[in-house]
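Weekly puzzle thread! Below is a chain. First person to post its structure in token form gets bragging rights.
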Amino acid sequence: MSYGKPHPVFETIQKLREAYLRLGFEEVMNPVIIEEDEVKRQFGKEALAVLDRCYYLAGLPRPDIGISDERVKRMNSYFGKEISKEEIEALRNIDTCRNLE
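Winning reply:
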């Protein structure tokens, strides 16, 4: 029976780990999965933005940010004019969306 072969990236990580330990650094364990409540506790009001950037932009399909008809009506009343579909699409594409309420 033959043995498997390690990936070169993991071999490099192991060699770096051993080198740092020999230099006197102490190892710390960082969890791979962090509970949503812990993120909220650490980041407060910005937690949802952190979760959005860390998880959705990291490869999961990002939900449509969407702007409801209700919000469009409110924005129309604020601006005194009807907002075009192009303007609404431009708002959806803004990198850091804030809650408009």
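Puzzle host: Confirmed. Bonus trivia for everyone else. The longest helix spans residues 8-22.
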